[in-house]
Structures are given as C-alpha cells and as structure tokens.
Amino acid sequence: MFDRRTFAGMRRAGMGVGLSKAKLSQAMLEILLQLPAGTKDLKETIVGHLGLIGAMSATRDINAAWNETKRKAAREYPERFLRADRDVLHWRDESVRLLDKKISGANFRKLNALANAAGCSVDQLVSTLIRHYEKKKA
C-alpha cells in the first residue's frame, strides 16, 4: 500500500497533516495510557497506532511530540511511568531501578582524600571498598 517514502513525497508536494506538535503529543499520550504495562519499544508502538497521522507527520514533529509526551507521562502519571537520567521513558515496575548518583560534598572530599592517600583513583578505591565489603559480608 503506502510507505513513509510515499507520504514524504506527498508532504513535499504540499499535502501536510496540518496537526500541531501539541495535538500530536496529546494523541501520543492518549495511546500511551491505553497500552498494557510492560509494552516494549513504546515510541514505535505509539507511532504505529497513530495510523495515517503518524505516517504523514514529519520525523522531527514526531520526535518533538515524543519528547513532550515522555515529560507529560512522567509528570502526570508518576504511578505508571518514570523517566530515567537519559530521558528514557520506563514503566514503573520492579524491573527498573534508577541509579543513585548523588553523593554529598563531604563524602566526595573524603573519597578523594582517601584515593590520594592510597595513590589510586576514586574509581579504583570504590571498587576495592566494594570487594572488601562483599568478602566481609560472605
């Protein structure tokens, strides 16, 4: 039938969808909320469910709308979705754990002082500390 190349040619000829990014984002959010929990490859699934609107929309419009949809979903439905540090949308379940990257300034200074005293990098020091902790724990 039709593919994206055909629709791209139609857009270049002046036959656009005439749909704003905000409306496209709203449609994506509505589809996202209807998907079953655990669905993989959310963006492609949603664009596929958009049908003709998804096929006729420009890629940059879809990408901009998807970024807005991720923000809205994580902000408005925190019990269902969470956004990771690389701006990736995840289902909120036990399979996804966000890394704790916060360390206090005082502990950071202590780690650097210990690493300087030991003559190694902070990464090597932390690896050694973890190894000793695991040995002591076992």
Into how many domains do the coordinates divide?
Answer: 2
Helix fraction bin:
55-70%
- Alpha-beta classification: mainly alpha
Distance between the termini: 62 Å
- Radius of gyration from the CA trace? 23 Å
What attributes characterize this protein structure?
mainly alpha; about 60% helix; 7 helices; two-stranded antiparallel ribbon; about 140 residues; single chain
Descriptive overview:
By secondary structure, this protein is mainly alpha-helical. The chain folds into two domains: 4-91, no CATH class; 105-137. Helix content is 62%, strand content 4%. The protein is built from seven helices and two strands. It has a two-stranded antiparallel ribbon with strand order 1-2. A hairpin with a 5-residue loop joins strand 1 and strand 2.
How would you summarize this macromolecular structure in one to three sentences?
By secondary structure, the chain is mainly alpha-helical. Helices cover 62% and strands 4% of the residues.
